[in-house]
Write a structure and sequence with these properties.
Structural class: mainly alpha
Number of helices: 13
Radius of gyration: 18 Å
Distance between the termini: 28 Å
Order of helices and strands: HHHHHHHHHHHHH
């Protein structure tokens, strides 16, 4: 991988991580159609740390409130001490499905599941569920109104992102819409719920890469990819929140369907 390729892939990762069109799919497709080698699941997971940094920066105030609320709940020995405390601990537990399933099927996810046919079908199927969620969801609720088990249901939806092409943001936004969240609230919750999974996945893959030995060029490319992902992620977060205040997720669903059909057509 050249430094230019790392820069481009970092930008692609950041621009597509939080928009419900699947960053994994685009990180697989861009190299494929440009004639580059597949960067691999490990590189894709590590540069997500840039997206993690963007979320911490964009939602610093919200995250600080959740941390303080969680600490206060421990002090009072009551995890349900306040709405923010309940939300913080529910997010922590809601991360378990994707963590457990990710470790259990790690080999399949990093190898067989990266086939373009699987990615194309995942793009299309989740798009149809997004359209269904738009049609059935009431879109009246706020994030703090979610109960513990409702958050766990969205956590299960997030686990769908282990299938390349499904999209972590797409699956969690879909779950939020089915539970009646407003569109922008579903997106905000998607960002917060993804923090533990993105952080843990990226850190584990980074340790594996460092253990195998990257060399100076490899470290430089990773650094370039992470920085590019951080900057483009920050921009995409703001774009998505503003977009969802006025529009639905329909356009993203239509894009997913067209992209999936294009992949299937190109493979045939």
């Amino acid at each position: 991988m050249t430094t230019l390729q790392a820069l481009i892939l970092g930008l692609v990762q950041g621009l597509t991580e939080f928009i419900p069109i699947s960053s994994t799919a685009h990180l697989r497709l861009v190299p494929h159609f440009l004639g580059w080698s597949d960067p691999g699941a490990a590189f894709s997971a590590v540069i997500q740390l840039g997206s993690l940094l963007a979320v911490f920066t964009y939602f610093a105030t919200d995250l600080w409130k959740l941390v303080l609320a969680a600490l206060a709940s421990l002090q009072h020995r009551n995890l349900n001490h306040s709405p923010d405390a309940r939300l913080a601990w529910s997010i922590a537990v809601g991360t378990l499905p994707i963590s457990v399933l990710g470790l259990a099927f790690k080999h399949f996810i990093e190898n067989d599941a990266r086939q373009l046919t699987i990615i194309a079908l995942a793009l299309i199927v989740l798009a149809l569920f997004l359209l269904l969620a738009e049609r059935l969801g009431r879109r009246t609720r706020f994030m703090h109104e979610l109960g513990f088990w409702q958050i766990q249901l969205i956590g299960l939806c997030q686990a769908l992102a282990l299938i390349p092409g499904c999209s972590r943001s797409g699956s969690t936004i879909m779950g939020g819409l089915f539970l009646g969240l407003r569109r922008e609230e579903a997106a905000r919750f998607s960002f917060l719920l993804g923090l533990p999974a993105i952080g843990a996945g990226g850190a584990l893959e980074l340790l594996d890469l460092l253990k195998d030995g990257l060399g100076e060029a490899g470290l430089l490319n990773l650094g370039v990819g992470i920085v590019a992902a951080a900057l483009s992620s920050y921009l995409s977060i703001g774009f998505l929140l503003r977009f969802l205040q006025r529009h639905g997720t329909h356009w993203f669903a239509y894009y997913r369907i067209l992209l999936g059909l294009f992949i299937l057509f190109s493979l045939s």
